[in-house]
User: Fold Ubiquinone biosynthesis O-methyltransferase from Oxalobacter vibrioformis.
Amino acid sequence: MNVDQAELLKFNALAGKWWDTNGAFRFLHALNPLRLQWIESLSPLREKQVLDIGCGGGILSEAMARCGAIVTGIDMAGEAIRAAEAHRAQSGLSIDYRLMSAETLAGEEPGKYDIVTCLEMLEHVPDPVSIISAAARLVKPEGMVYFATLNRNLKSFIYAIAGAEYILGLLPKGTHQHARFLTPAELSRHVRNTGMEVTAITGISSNLTASHFYLSRDVSINYMMACQRLL
Assistant:
C-alpha cells in the first residue's frame, strides 16, 4: 500500500491535537480559511460531491461542509479519522469519514466526485504519483482537483523545515522530508500524465513570523494547484 508507516505513527500520535488551534496543527488552522477561499472562488462548493484525500482530523472537510458541500474524507491514519469523527459529533455536520486509501476508493467510486482536494498530503506518501492518478480517476469528467504541497529548493528547506519546524515551532519537528517535496513543474507533469490539465496555480506567502498568510505569485515555498479532468 502507498503508505509510510513512520508517517502514520507520527500522525496517529498527534491525533488528539488536531483541533487545538494553538497546538501542533495551528499552522493548518491558520492556512485553512485562505485555502478554502481560493477553492470556493474557483469551484463553488454548495451541493457538490467533494472528496478530501488525506483529511486528517477534518479541518478542511468541516470547512467545506459548512459551505454546503457533501463531503467524504479519507485518511490512512486511524487515530486521525477517529479524531475527525469525534469533532464531527460536536459540530453537528454530516461528513462521511472513511479509513481507506485514495487508490482503493478510486477502484470503488470512479468518477463520482465533482471536486477532489488533496492538501498537504503528497509530501507524506512514498508514491505521490499514485495519489495524483487516483484523484484523476475519482473526479467526474470536467470536475476539479486541488493540490497543495511544498516546492523543493533551498528556500523551502530554510523556511518550511528549518524555520517552521525548528525555529518558529509552527510544526512538530520532523513533519516534513525535503526530498519528498514536489516542484510545480514536476506536479504539473504528473497531472498532465493522468489526463488532467492545470487551470490555476497560486503561491501562499506569509509575514516573517508566519502569523499572517496571503495568496501570491511566489510559489517558491507553499503553493496550490487547480486541475481539471478532461473528457
